[in-house]
Amino acid sequence: MLELLTGAGLALSAGLNAYIPLLVLGVLARLTPLVELSDTWSWLTSGWAIGILSALLVVETVADKLPSVDHLNDLVQTVVRPTAGGIVFATSAASQTHGVVSETAPDIPQPVLVVLGVVLALAAHLVKAIARPAVNLSTAGAGAPVASVVEDVASSTLAVLAILVPAFVVVFVLALVAVAITAIRQRRRHRRRLILPGGSGPT
Question: Which of 53, 76, 91, 119 could join 41 in a cystine, given CB atoms 3.0 to 4.6 angstroms apart?
Answer without folding.
Answer: 91
